[in-house]
Design goal:
With 174 residues, the protein is α+β, with helices and mostly antiparallel strands. The protein is 18% helix and 22% strand.
Length: 174
């Protein structure tokens, strides 16, 4: 069990036990029972500062730092990390979405705008011969794709086969 917050109603005359526990907590003392093990640290989920230079591998994030993407539809701005994983074959749009999400930890296909930023900032680290799906749907039956050879974007039937790359967003530090 992990407790984040404790509310103590001290009242007008706290007991000696309450005074001792409060004093220990304020000193940062370890109040676990003797012999108990500390809880494992929670995975990092909050804002993370100090990304590497654009184009460099970002340790702990599984990929190459691309830069900052402006949040859409009320989402916060975030760092973009191009993940190292590449599917073995071309995929339909639906299978590309599943493949990217299957990488875990928030991985997904980049939006059309994030794909344009990948081209702008990481064109030297991407395959230039293939069209790549984005996570942006153009209509019920088509989605946007990105060509990293010259930066063009278009749309195609979701049943068509194309390459895919995945990204992970890391919230900007507050």
């Amino acid at each position: 069990m992990h407790i984040e917050n404790v509310i103590i109603n001290i009242g007008s005359s706290p007991s000696a036990m309450l005074q001792a526990v409060t004093s220990a907590l304020l000193r940062g003392a370890d109040l676990r029972e003797p012999g108990s093990q500390p809880a494992p640290p929670a995975p990092a989920t909050g804002p993370i500062a100090n990304p590497p230079p654009i184009g460099e591998y970002w340790p702990g994030h599984g990929g190459i730092y691309c830069g900052v993407s402006r949040g859409e539809d009320g989402q916060p701005d975030a760092h973009i990390v191009l993940l190292e994983a590449i599917p073995a074959t071309n995929l339909s749009w639906e299978n590309a979405v599943k493949w990217a999400e299957g990488l875990g930890n928030g991985a997904r296909l980049p939006t059309r705008f994030e794909s344009a930023l990948l081209y702008a900032n990481l064109h030297d680290k991407l395959e230039k011969e293939y069209w790549n799906w984005t996570g942006t749907q153009f209509s019920a039956s088509s989605a946007v794709y990105q060509f990293f050879g010259y930066g063009g974007q278009g749309n195609s039937d979701k049943k068509s086969k194309a390459r895919a790359r995945a990204v992970r967003l890391v919230q900007l530090s507050a």
